[in-house]
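Forum: Protein Structure Q&A
Topic: Joint prediction for protein chains with partners

I've read a bunch of threads here and the consensus seems to be that you should model interacting components together rather than docking separate models afterwards. I'd like to see that in practice. Below is the full input, 645 residues plus whatever partners are listed. Could one of the regulars post the assembled result?
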Amino acid sequence: MKYAARRALHSLLLWIALSALFFVFADLAPGDYFSELRLDARVSSGTVAAMRAQSGAGRPLAVRYARWAAAAVRGDFGHSLAYDSPVAPLLWPRVRATLLLTGTATLLAWLLAVPLGVWAATQRGTWRDGVLNAVLSLLLSVPDLLLAIVFLVFAVRSGLFPAGGMTSAASSSMNPAEQARDIARHLVLPVAVLVLGMLPVLARHVRASMLEVIDAPFALAARAQGIGRRRLLFRHLLPAAMNPLISLFGVSLGTLLSASLLVEVVMGWPGLGPLFLEAIMARDFPLAVAMFSAAFLMAGNLAADLLLCYFDPRIRTG
Amino acid sequence: MAERTKIRSALAFLAALHAAVALAGFLAPYGFADQRRDYPYAPPARLRFLDASGRFHLRPFVYGLAPDGAGGYREDTAGAYPVRFLFHQRLFGVDEPGTIFLCGSDGYGRDVFSRVLYGGQTSLVTGLAAAFVSLSLGLALGIAAGFYGGWLDRLIMRGGELAMALPWLYLLLAVRAFLPLHIGAPEAFALLVAIIGGSGWVRPARLIRGVALSARERGYVEAARGFGASDAYLIRRHLLPMTLGVALTQATVLIPRYVLAEIALSFLGLGIGEPAPSWGNMLAEARQYHALVSHPWMLAPAVAAFPILLAYLILADALMERQREGG
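Posted by a regular:
Agreed with the consensus. Here's the joint model:
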């Protein structure tokens, strides 16, 4: 419990340090929303100056950070100048969409990767292992971007799946069950891209960590006692091979969120990625979005730490 | 031994690909900015050996292109243009007004094949240079942390945690967001290398720190220290050579990742801008998928990246396998 609390506190401190660092850098950065706005001939320079004054951009850095942090704690992540609306209501639907996409993809990828990796480990040295390894290597070398674009072209040409977006135009007139079906249909392709991108990495790691334990003396002893193959693999060996995989779960979230950004942009999925890009281009509120993605990743890493603590008594007591 | 063959063939393959890209000025039939505005989105040219009357020609030729009335092109058998080799200081080409677009042309009538070769220069050099930056930083910081330990170690490792707290693409974009958006191509290139290289030092630094930590305790390092060797000498003669294997393996992991990073950033419009080609900004044109559906050859840059990524992957796997066997 002490370990868990320490990890949680650590994540929180890291998050605060990151936000402070970002705030300073964002302040040092040349140009802001208003300098981008000044390029717009329809807005007079007087208006820009007035808007700048109203936003409190002239105050000292520390004061602005304190105000931002205090507001962030209350769930208020500032004001978007481009949308002229608070950032939080803009962010939440995006966060939900990204979570839906990455959550589904993570779940599916692990469900496929674990049996595949375990199977590959039992086939070590045979042609089946070789073929699987070759296929996974090929898959690993296909850029996610290419995969996303090709799938999109497939969707457009075949008409089997909707080409991008999260909902159909008629979504608002559907009943909840139909809406869910509609979203599920839109999910298929982006999830497929993410799963295909993540699967080879995960399966290769599962195989490698299974190989670490497959020849261990306890495995031999268990086999000698006549324990069945499946029970041996999944009840005895897999838990022993679990630790590096749990750490991988935390780390892989970062890769997944990055891949998801590209997929969201290409497939028009209304997640955090396109919003972040838009915020950067307009110099509007990239800070808030970045801090959200950081929070995701940290939550993932924290979850991995806690799982590790739950699965491995050595870490709990150590 | 199988590892050695793998390493050698992957290296040879990579060398050939890099050479092809380096020699783009000679191998490509057109310059990267040469436009044939009268041939937008022309399909890949078909090299022919048999003419309309069925006669065989040793020298391949292409037919001219004529609009087919539906927005596409058909081959115009009235005009045949033999492929000329060592033509205008390039490996091959055809006489005007003929065109030889081996991978088709883009919306401005620029040769996609030539642009993939030239774009490779941007993308691959970004990958190599950024990996060099990352590894130099990783070596310096990793060795400093592992060798000196104490507060320096804690500072560097905490800094690393900060850099790892964001998903890498978000980190790249965030860093990019702090810098001016509208800049010229040379500045954009330098910036890209600095951002990609500078934000990726953590993983190599951690690995190298581990090696340095164990190296510090080795008997011969202790002995050298006992004889009065300076820190600089120990690092140069003992630590650096020991970390080299890890650094090389990391290079084979980082380079392909950074090539992809360049593609991602330029694709999103935050990297190298037109008209200088890079694989990323060429793909950006493919974002308009209605164009892509009828012009699939616009995906050529992403397809070109594939063999390079695969070769690096095989190389990295073989190197890691060898390291494991070597203990």
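Residues 130 and 194 of chain B are 7 Å apart (CA to CA).
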